[in-house]
Amino acid sequence: MSILINKKTRLLVQGITGNEGMFHTEQMHSYGTNVVAGVTPGKGGEWVLNDKVPVFDSVRMAVQATEANTSVIFVPARFAPDAIYEAADAGIPFIVCITEGIPVQEMMRVREYLDQKHVRLLGPNCPGVLTPGESKVGIIPGEIALAGNIGVVSRSGTLTYEVLYALKLVGLGASTCVGIGGDPINGTSFIDCLDMFEADPHTEKIVMIGEIGGTDEEKAAQFIASHLTKPVVSFIAGQTAPPGKRMGHAGAIIEGGSGTAADKIIALEKAGVKVAKHPEEIPLLLR
Amino acid sequence: MKLHEYQSKTIFAKFGIPIPKGRVATTATEARQIAEELGGRVVVKSQVLVGGRGKAGGIRLAKTPKEAEELATQILGMVIKGLPVRKVLIDEAANIEQEIYLGITNDRAARRPVIMASAAGGVDIEEVARVSPEKIIKVHIDPLLGLRDFQSRDIAASIDLARDCWKEFTKISLNLWRAYSENDATLAEINPLVITKDRRLVAVDGKMLIDDNSLFRHSDLAEMRDLDEEVFSETEARKYGLSFIKLDGQIGCMVNGAGLAMTTMDIVKIFKGDPANFLDIGGGANADKVAAAFRIILSDKNVKVILINIFGGITRCDEVAKGILVALEEVKPNIPMVVRLVGTNSEEGIRLLADAKMITASTLADAAQKSVLASQGILEM
């Protein structure tokens, strides 16, 4: 069992004929993901992946022909908002946007529109989602994670891979690993994922990896205290980050004294969460 | 990206917001000429990208062109919070009746823009927010609808603005919203918005921050970036698509991924070391990028050791190792290096680096500890 994706996922890749799109389509396919279609405007009618996957001119056409139910977006930032609107408009209920660098005001409009349509977005600026042994949507390297009973949710990319790998080394695996992305405005939050992991019968423990910026970790802490029965272990990156500087991720910034790692750690510990000093401590705290 | 006051006000004027007459000067003589043109009392304002210019003595009132010249001489020689003043704005002085605050920013938690106004303008608004938050009126803006007339009328009434100013205030707030949304700003602020003795509204000071991620569609704004106000190494890093922030420690860090780069800094600190920088080299194993990263780290003379922390996922460790070897040929650092390669093909990567005289580490903790020891000269290769 898992959250967000599973064997029934019928995946559509937007931007499938680009470098990134093509490479990761191959990776996802060889991991066992059911990639049913791709979209690149102007390339409809072509086939990719040894003629296994048809390419369409629009998401609407792809959905009509293949009944795709999930979309992953690999198009450049200037076209990505339109790609998200297009997927939502075609009735795709779950959209994963890998693209980094979408302007924040654009994302506020996108999020408002998706909320009105009740469409779930993961990302943007995220590595996607992996259910080990079943399916992956996005760019998380499949071979670094074992299947297991730990739900992993994170704002980061390689830091998440570190954690998956550290778990694997001690024989622990993930039910599902979700990268919610490093942007200030995103689609799926920590709370959404915690809620889904709590309801998932195969998830027994949860790892939540946060970082400086915003107050989502503090809100998650309140949610954990009031709604969760499963134990949560956490790590917060950016304890040495200077205020007012964007630490790589658009959302990783301490603004007006708000969003510090210290505040987040205090809030989480108050909610009964074990907070690791560094990522290698996470497997120990899960015992 | 931060804009200077004069740049922000130029944008405001384009969007129909009244600003004082004035121009930028880089010399005291020029400052006097501008003051003469403006004919009378002027304000001499330092243009540096930090807050607290007034408190530092970087904003002064001059009664005559001669005084403007004298003040410009003083201010152009000042260093405010580490930044030398290179430009002054000479603005016609306003006859102030009242000062109000008007600003728009993104409310991240609410996921919408928020417009804020206060009758207590002209002072540090963060201070007002802390001491008497009830004096600030906040109204969220629907990102799909934009700011509406009724909202700005409601704000005018809420801050007890005199009714004869409502029409002008509404016009200015709607124009500020347009300046904000059309320029992809993350902040557009008028502080103070002055009501003059003859009942006009004028944006006496202005501040704008632009979303870096939007600059691909605002080439006019991208050109406004003032490189004089930036740390050289950060400007250099941007050229190569590297995400770099200079810090004050001795341990240079080269990492793939922003979250992992922050974590690497944190763990260095746990072992009582101080990171010299944040650096995310991103995905891929491009030797040019790695070489640029080495050069940028080494341009900081405080750096005593370089810690390379790479997690191989899609980009395999052996590819990264090859990139590092090519870059080392070019750069040849003469300080110790600690390297940790983990993930896909890490053994192969480590084998490739065996001849490169690097200290190898297996865990994050091990890498941090060895870097700290190497920076103190205790550990050598």
Topology, element by element:
The complex is a heterodimer of chains A (287) and B (381).
Chain A (H helix, E strand, L loop, with lengths): L10 E4 L4 H13 L3 E5 L7 E2 L4 E4 L2 H8 L3 E4 L6 H10 L4 E4 L6 H14 L2 E3 L5 E4 L3 E4 L8 E8 L3 H12 L4 E6 L10 H10 L5 E7 L4 H12 L4 E6 L23 H10 L3 E2 L6 H5 L1
Parallel strand pairs in A: 1-2, 1-5, 2-4, 5-6, 6-7, 10-11, 10-12, 12-13, 13-14
Antiparallel strand pairs in A: 3-4, 8-9, 8-11
Chain B lengths: L4 H10 L7 E4 L2 H11 L3 E5 L12 E4 L2 H12 L2 E2 L2 E2 L3 E5 L3 E12 L4 E7 L6 H7 L4 E5 L8 H10 L7 H17 L2 E12 L4 E3 L2 E5 L8 H4 L9 H8 L3 E4 L4 E5 L2 H13 L6 E4 L6 H12 L6 E8 L4 H15 L5 E7 L2 H7 L6 E2 L3 H12 L6
Parallel strand pairs in B: 14-16, 16-17, 17-18
Antiparallel strand pairs in B: 1-6, 2-3, 2-6, 4-5, 7-8, 7-10, 8-9, 10-11, 10-12, 13-15
Task: Offer a concise description of the structure.
The complex is a heterodimer of chains A (287) and B (381). By secondary structure, chain A is α/β, with parallel strands linked by helices.
Assign the structural class of chain B, choosing from mainly alpha, mainly beta, alpha/beta, alpha+beta, or little secondary structure: alpha+beta
Q: Categorize the overall geometry of chain B.
A: elongated
Number of strands of chain A: 14
Mean pLDDT of chain A: 95
Helix content of chain B: 25-40%
Taken together, the total number of domains of chain A comes to 2
* Count of discrete alpha- or pi-helical segments spanning 4 or more residues of chain A: 9
Output the CATH topology of the largest domain in chain A.
Answer: Rossmann fold
Sequence of strands across the biggest β-sheet of chain A: 3-4-2-1-5-6-7
For CATH, the homologous superfamily of the largest domain in chain B is named as ATP-grasp fold, B domain
| Beta-strand share of residues of chain B | 25-35%
Low-confidence stretches of chain B: none
Give the distance, in angstroms, between the N- and C-terminal Cα atoms of chain A: 22 Å
CATH class identity of the largest domain in chain A: Alpha Beta
User: For the CA atoms, what is the radius of gyration of chain B?
Assistant: 26 Å
